[in-house]
Amino acid sequence: MDVLKPCSIFQNSLMSALLAGDFEGKMTVGELLRKGDTGLGTFEGLDGEMAVVDGKAYKMTSDGKAREALNEEKSPFAAVTAFCPSIFLEVGEREELEGKILSHLPGANYPCALKCFGEFKKVVTRTVSKREKPWGPMKEAVDEQKVCEFEKVRGDVVGFWTPKAFEGPCVSGFHLHFISESRDFGGHILSVEANQVSVQIAFCPLITFSLPQSSLFASAKLTPEDLSSQIAYAEKTHE
């Protein structure tokens, strides 16, 4: 393989803990931004989706609107990287965005951080609403998610592609969030189509996990038999 500049991913908690209903904030936004300038996550109690772009964190709420997150706001789950791309692509309107990214990954077994920016033909996003204690599994929040559809919109897509071998601690495949160029709307991506988009891919052979030191995490069921279907239900379009 070509010599690529290596990046590292810092992840707060595990995806499987979020699925199990551990929505307790572990790190502040300010602490996360000291770990990386690009990434995604959520907020305590699933109070919206997080996109980290160019060293700033944004909070997308259940109405699809966005604002810059406060440094003191807490996150139960987030992944960030000090973004150092090695692969650069241009994707036009007749090309399938995720397919082209897949064809240029440095290998099937390495996580990669992604940033895409430009004009998108169509972006379908979802945001979840804040949950009140006692928290149930994430599926309950997803059942009430709000879906928004944006057409001919400029903005940034940030996130990760992760191999199947990492499923559970991470979301395998694509995990992407969108924030508009105006930084006032966005969400977790369910589907995306490019119009004219620049893509940057960072090779990430190192992942650091920061595990919560809490009774909620200690007792969470992190390896359910239906883990793959739970992740697919939480992250993808469903009826």
Q: In terms of quaternary structure, what is this?
A: single chain
Strand tally, please? 13
Can you give the mean pLDDT? 96
Please, how many helices? 6
CATH topology: 60s Ribosomal Protein L30, Chain: A
Low-confidence stretches: none
Major sheet attributes: 11 strands, mixed
- CATH architectural type: 2-Layer Sandwich
Strand content: 35-45%
Structure class: alpha+beta
Principal-axis shape equals: globular
Estimate the helix proportion, in percent: 10-25%
CATH class: Alpha Beta
| CATH H-level superfamily title | Hypothetical protein, similar to alpha- acetolactate decarboxylase, domain 2
Order of helices and strands: EHEHEEEEEEEHEHEEEHH
In whole angstroms, the N-to-C terminal distance is 41 Å
What is the strand and helix layout of this fold?
Layout: E1 6-12, H1 15-19, E2 27-28, H2 29-33, E3 38-42, E4 49-53, E5 56-60, E6 66-68, E7 74-75, E8 78-81, E9 87-92, H3 97-103, E10 112-127, H4 138-142, E11 146-162, E12 173-180, E13 186-210, H5 215-219, H6 227-235
Parallel strand pairs: 1-13
Antiparallel strand pairs: 1-8, 2-7, 3-4, 3-8, 4-5, 5-6, 9-13, 10-11, 10-13, 11-12, 12-13
Question: Can you put this structure into words, describing what you see?
Answer:
With 239 residues, the chain is an alpha+beta fold. The protein has a single domain, classed as 2-Layer Sandwich (60s Ribosomal Protein L30, Chain: A), CATH 3.30.1330. The chain has 6 helices and 13 strands. The strands form 2 sheets. Strands 1, 3, 4, 5, 6, 8, 9, 10, 11, 12 and 13 form an 11-stranded mixed sheet that branches. It has a two-stranded antiparallel sheet with strand order 2-7. The longest helix has 9 residues, at 227-235. It is globular, with a radius of gyration of 16 Å. The model has no long low-confidence stretch (mean pLDDT 96).
